[in-house]
Amino acid sequence: MRIDKWLWAARFFKTRSLASQAIEGGHVRLNGQAVKPARELRVGDSLDIVAGGTQWTVIVRGLNEQRRPAVEAQQLYEETPESSARRAAEKEDRRLAPVPGSDLRGRPTKKARRQMRGFNEGF
């Protein structure tokens, strides 16, 4: 099975084209080596995946030609203990020190616009 198709079926990427772009960009490594999207994937292979700023290390446990529900897709791979510990630590770091401005949603309010205008006019 093609590696880009498996990444799509296992729900690491939303589309096959995004999976192919990630592979070509060097964000996916098969058994520690860079690969092309058409590379054949087998059960037991190890994948290092960087998707959305999150790094995964998984072992392929199954192959499926179709994209199935998330519960079934999770049965296609097994995450290594080091990878799950690393992701938990990253999640805790994001919780303790969020990215500045991550709490802002949508357009500024009238009050916030006035504050920004006052701040900018002060310089």
TrEMBL record:
<dbReference type="Pfam" id="PF01479">
    <property type="entry name" value="S4"/>
</dbReference>
<keyword id="KW-0238">DNA-binding</keyword>
<comment type="similarity">
    <text>Belongs to the HSP15 family.</text>
</comment>
<keyword id="KW-0694">RNA-binding</keyword>
<dbReference type="InterPro" id="IPR025708">
    <property type="entry name" value="HSP15"/>
</dbReference>
<feature type="compositionally biased region" description="Basic residues">
    <location>
        <begin position="107"/>
        <end position="116"/>
    </location>
</feature>
<feature type="compositionally biased region" description="Basic and acidic residues">
    <location>
        <begin position="84"/>
        <end position="96"/>
    </location>
</feature>
<protein>
    <submittedName>
        <fullName>RNA-binding S4 domain-containing protein</fullName>
    </submittedName>
</protein>
<feature type="domain" description="RNA-binding S4">
    <location>
        <begin position="1"/>
        <end position="67"/>
    </location>
</feature>
<dbReference type="InterPro" id="IPR036986">
    <property type="entry name" value="S4_RNA-bd_sf"/>
</dbReference>
<dbReference type="InterPro" id="IPR002942">
    <property type="entry name" value="S4_RNA-bd"/>
</dbReference>
<feature type="region of interest" description="Disordered">
    <location>
        <begin position="72"/>
        <end position="123"/>
    </location>
</feature>
